[in-house]
Design goal:
heterodimer, A: alpha+beta, 2 domains, 10-stranded mixed beta sheet, two-stranded antiparallel sheet, B: alpha/beta, 5-stranded parallel beta sheet, 8 helices, 10 strands, about 35% helix
Amino acid sequence: MILRLALASLFARALTVGMTILAIALSVMLFLGVEKVRTGAKASFADTISGTDLIVGARSGSVQLLLYSVFRIGNATNNVTWQSYQDIAARPEIDWIVPISLGDSHRQFRVMGTTREFFDRYKYRQGRSLAIAQGAVMDDLFDTVIGADVAATLGYRVGDPIVVAHGLASFTEHKDQPFRISGILAKTGTPVDRTVIVSLQAIEAIHVDWRSGAQIPGQSTPVDVIRQMDLTPKAVTAALIGVQSPLQTFRLQRAINEYPQEPLLAVLPGVALQELWAIVGIAETALLAVSAMVVVTALIGMMATIFSSLNERRREMAIFRAMGARPGTIFGLLVIEAMLTAAMGAVLGLALLYAGLFVAQPVLDSAFGLWLPIDAPSLREGLVLAGVVAAGALVSLVPAFRAYRLSLADGMMVKS
Amino acid sequence: MTQPVLKLSGVTFRWPGRAGFALSVPDFSVAAGESVLLLGDSGAGKSTLLSLICGTLLPESGTILVNGTDITGLSGAGRDRFRAEQIGVIFQQFNLLPFGSVVDNILLPLRFAPQRRGRVADARADAAAICTALGLPGDVFTAKAHTLSVGQQQRVAVARALIGQPPLIVADEPTSALDANSQAAFLDLLFQQKAAQNTALLMVSHDPRLGDRFDRVVGITDIARITRAAA
């Protein structure tokens, strides 16, 4: 009955209570939303590469290797010689190995040389494969497959010719060997979207007339001559490896790291991603802290509302007292009201979050490649909601104590 | 004469923070089933006396026996509980929680008084019966209290004071918000039910015209003395 009266009392003040609930709901939605985006971004980040057991490159740092081989950020300090690549590929632990050759660009996008196997082996977001949206995987030496962002940004279609520039942000273009777009990949939300993919041989082909980063003066080998040449690469930038059995991963990693002929580095993508996340995750934590402050602000707003309502409710408290309610009961009543308000705000906030997710999920996925799963509330979210209710109870202690003092002084008589 | 339902002896009270302003009641009692009208002007200490009887104020000295128990010996919470068990309270106006239903308002004191609750077999039926006896239409029972007229609200307050048959009803000018006709009808009903339940009634008023209905009319200046020592 006390609970029913508390609810009735809240209903009687529907407008102010509703505003308080709305403020709490919006703050809870913001907090949970930031948390969702944070975990979603982390998952999307971790989903950039999956199904690959090891990444091999020249010896540098694991984060650096991950950045240039997967995220196409920064540059390799050195290459892996073709001989070393062949040695690794021949090891018994290897299930598959896909070479990656970087260093050239087209407009602002990186060019990556690889084998056709890349399209089968590169997986993202828990084992999803790359899909060709238009056209086909490259067939000819001068064919190229471009990522969705490349096509969208530059307005390319299948069949368009493109010219690859040597180096990055370079104006020296390999004009002699124009490429043709054979296929456009579907959007993945990974760095593949911003990559121009050619065959490993094509990378060699465009460098036929180049030595030590400069074009040999006067030399220009015709395309049909190049086609007859042996285009086996002398080096690759990195390689993605799948092992026969997960148990062999660490043995292979150690073997590569201790490879005597050349200083190499093999990293587990998951571990390197964790290291990278530890660096960029700080910003996300700051965002979470800010949204937590918004929740605190909403709860303090509720406290102010309870405070301002106390005076007009003194008569109500006097009636309770006359009927035999202790001042402690008045105290409890106010705390219960605050908890009910906070609980309603928390539940409404959760509902708003899910409504927002349903609307924003496809948009975020296609625009940012950020996939926010719509799951049942997690334990963590449940704890957040319970925490909001508990914090609501906590901040209500201050006005409740004032009400306690007032009702003790007033008794059943309110001087008005 | 049976044991008085209310007996104050040697009670003195001093308002905290107001030096020299004190109330003393040497001897005052109300017998079981008796109706007493306490007359006094505002500022004569009526409210303070009622607060003392109800136990929301504690006297400096003296004893206040309610139904044989000295409430000055009880703790604050004990006095609150005792008030709920033994005394029905009716105010001038604004008696009801406006957002609560009529039935919730009537049953509210029982929530704090398990013994009084135990005296009622079926609280809702009892409340309905009292409402009917007080001439309240049946459909107000579940209505929100703020939708009732002032006269109806005062009758609901009477029903709330009567439920569970407390030995004493304390009423603080319950008719002052009513017009003359309603006052008479209200008092008729109040006395009818008071007689039916054999409850003692202590009513405070400034209006001597109400006196002929009561067993006894007492001026507050006859039983209580207010001293205002020069500051």
